[in-house]
Amino acid sequence: MPVFKLRINGKDYQADVAADTPILWVLRDHLGLVGTKYGCGIAQCGACTIHVDGDPVRSCTLPVAAIESSAITTIEGLSENGDHPVQKAWEQADVPQCGYCQAGQIMTAAALLKRTPKPSDQEISDAMNGNICRCCAYHRIHDAVKLASTLK
Amino acid sequence: MAGGGLLLGFNWFSSEAQTSATIINGATGGADLLRFNSYLSIGTDGMVTIFSPNPELGQNIMTSFSMIVAEELDADWTKVKVVQAPLDPQKFERQITGGSGAIPHSWKRLRNAGATARHLLIAAAAKQWNVDPSECTASDGFVIHKSSNRKSGYGDLVAAAATMPVPESVPLKDRKDFKLIGKPLGNLEIKNIITGKPIFGSDFHRDGMVLAMVQRPPAFGSKIKSVDDAAVRKMPGIIDVIRFKDNVAIIGTTTWEIMKARKALKVEYENDGKPESTADHDKILRDLLDSKEATVRRKDGDVESAFKSAAKIIKSEFQCPFIPHSPMEPMNFFAHVREDRVELVGPTQTPGNARMAVSKLLNIPEEKITVDITRLGGGFGRRLKFDFVLEAAEISSIIKKPVKVIWTREDDTMGGSYRPAARYRFEAALDDKGNMIGYKLRGVGINLNNATREDNFPSGAVDNLLIDTAEHISPITTGAWRAPVTNFLAFAEQSFLDEVAHAAGKDPVQFRLELLQKARNKPVGAIKYNIDRMETVVKKVAEMAGWGKKKDVHQGFSVYYSHLSYVGQVCDVVMKAGKPVVQKIYAVADCGEVINKSGAMQQVMGGIIDGYGHAMYGKLSFKNGVPEQNNFGSYRLIRMKEVPPVEVDFVDNGVDPTGLGEPALPPTGGAVANAFFKATGTRLRSQPFIEEPLFKTAKGF
């Protein structure tokens, strides 16, 4: 099998996997990075959201061969100490219920705030709409994204 | 706690499931720990570790349990951490998460645990200072002797506390002295969640473990005819293919390789019984509504006469489809079966029952089986079943390796244990003054032995009443779904009562209060709900929502009693460009003592949106025994843009806590449907609402 060199969270990794392996499974099964979750496998739920060169991407449908030299960021690498403004807002607003969708929610929110630092309520809902929360913690998620836009 | 003192040391965990890649029971810190009782340890560094016995699925009992213990312990909240306890019937009763029962069951036990430990710490300090314990107080992790200006941290007292005699009973705090309980404290586990730590069953890893995916019969009511796994065995990463019961398991080392291999698996199935389609269910349920062989659940007075003498009769039917639970984390479980012992690790709502089932399956005594509980990525009742635990155990025993069984979303959506499809026919008889003198309910369902809650309101408030049920047994598997039965029955009932109120020419809230007053003054038969508590939430939510006072806002009302708690709701609907839109949902909840204000808000808001979303969109249909929806492209869950604002308040009555995981869900459908009726004149009778004519013609839903 081909060996893929990957740059993830500022570190270099190697994965000996089939070229069509979605990066989600490379992260989870081969590199021990299990913060990124599997929810549906068809890019419908957002639990698998990572950043590729800063853009939010569904890792469950992105084959490892397509990544090449792009920089990947996962939830584990979003910050050194869990203190990215989105993570800080998540703590202040006490967002999670079961917690399973939350890494994907946080990654989507962080990407939104990078391109739209002061989003309106509508912009938040539009951007976050692709991320399902089965526990329905939607109010808290929305509040936290709004709060994060005021934090550093 | 057992008389005879405390035990040193901290390795009480019965499993070996400590790996660098998974947090299950948590790190217990570097300092020596004293395990005071089942629920708490204190370290010589003053760290308090709480052991949470019930599985955590997002109801945040890890935090609220900890708050209850820490309150009576007078602990420093910043020095409190919590770990998930494994299955241990010697230490804990009822390690189930279901029925909104964890806090009600453990309330007194947790308080006693904290208070007893506090007593021993004070006794130890008093002995050291040579004073009477009654002269000492405890606060924020310190024992204090005010008059001599001395204080000692808990960490410095634990060793001595171990030697103190354990009291038979201890006084508990008065609620006016609560420092933690009732506050909105942050989730103790939040750092682990938001930094992607491996806390879920699907994250669990054990060196040397293999993965397994199971191909199950796609049609309920079918069995294997033949299997051709030749191509699968040749595929990269595949270790084995095995058959057990009507299942084919593909064993491999990585998820993607197994997913690909499944596509090469050829299995032929044949009928085993009669596979059913939704069209069959429609006919079966319609016929059951007229069956002469229903089971009477409750009978008061003489309904026949009441209906004969009625000035007006109202009759309505309601129906719901099957729905899956759809937790965000699909089913998964780890098992390592050895000759004489078994290790089970994973997300289960019922570790005790799971262990019992595995013991029976493998003929290994329960004492030789350990169960470690990971965090659950959602439960909703699905993980009360242990089918996936048995799969892991059976596969491990066959291949003689540690194995984690993983389900895809398709497996999960198509894998059964659904909320049963059901249908209801309500009839009400009104006299010429608009009083409800007769009430009939026929509830029928698939695999639903009792589709009603016969002792719930309005039973007790109606002189002549008949409730009966009938059931069809189907090969489609069903199970408890958040607020079982009431998750749809409440909508049907609250809609019907709204209809009766309108037919009687009465305001729905007023009509409800009159019925409650009748139950209070002239009860009929058994009353199994608290009239005062129900009345309070009705009045409070009506006031909160400005009932009847808002211009151009159409309001619907409902109230429900479930899992010992009371929730009243009002829904505001406005017309926007000719379409009815939910503008806001108000809720007042009486769950007795609110432990964690933030967590409680989450359960009410979450329960409401869960109820609203499934009422609007949830539907699983069948063709020849096969579910027609299998993933989130075809099965619709509510998303952020569809979520209306919610406002919540709690009743502050200091009653012992009565549970909150489920009670906010049942009243939602009724409040919303009644508001839609007020706005449009059209009643919603079938879920999902999105398929009702009212919404089918309106764009943008």
Note the main attributes of this structure.
heterodimer; A: 152 residues; alpha+beta; Ubiquitin-like (UB roll); DNA polymerase, domain 1; 2 domains; five-stranded mixed sheet; globular; B: 701 residues; seven-stranded mixed sheet; disordered N terminus
Any idea what the radius of gyration of chain B is? 28 Å
Tell me the count of domains of chain A: 2
Helix content of chain A: 25-40%
- Strand order of the main beta sheet of chain A, please? 2-1-5-3-4
CATH domain fold name of the largest domain in chain A? Ubiquitin-like (UB roll)
Tell me the fraction of residues in β-strands of chain B, as a range: 15-25%
Overall body shape of chain A:
globular
- Any idea of the CATH class of the largest domain in chain A? Alpha Beta
Strand order of the largest sheet of chain B: 11-12-9-19-16-17-18
Spatial extent as radius of gyration of chain A: 15 Å
Q: Helix segment count of chain A?
A: 5
Could you state the order of secondary-structure elements of chain A as H and E? EEHEEEHHHH
Q: Globular, elongated, flat, extended or rod-shaped: what is the shape of chain B?
A: globular
Distance N terminus to C terminus of chain B? 56 Å
Q: Would you identify the CATH H-level superfamily of the largest domain in chain A? A: Beta-grasp domain
**Structure summary, number of beta strands of chain A:** 5
* Helix share bin of chain B: 25-40%
What does this structure look like?
The complex is a heterodimer of chains A (152) and B (701). With 152 residues, chain A is α+β, with helices and mostly antiparallel strands. Chain A folds into 2 domains: 3-78, Beta-grasp domain (Ubiquitin-like (UB roll)), CATH 3.10.20; 85-148, DNA polymerase, domain 1 (Orthogonal Bundle), CATH 1.10.150.120. Chain A is built from 5 helices and 5 strands. In chain A, a hairpin with a 2-residue loop joins strand 3 (49-52) and strand 4 (55-58). The longest helix of chain A is centred in the last third of the chain and has 14 residues, at 102-115. The mean pLDDT of chain A is 97. With 701 residues, chain B is of the alpha+beta class. Chain B contains 17 helices and 28 strands. In chain B, the strands form 7 sheets. Chain B has a 7-stranded mixed β-sheet, sandwiched between helices. In chain B, strands 1-2-3-4-5 form a 5-stranded mixed β-sheet, covered by helices on one side. In chain B, strands 14-22-21-20-15 form a 5-stranded mixed β-sheet, with helices on both faces. Chains A and B meet through helix 1, helix 2, helix 3, helix 4 and helix 5 of A and helix 4, helix 6 and helix 15 of B.
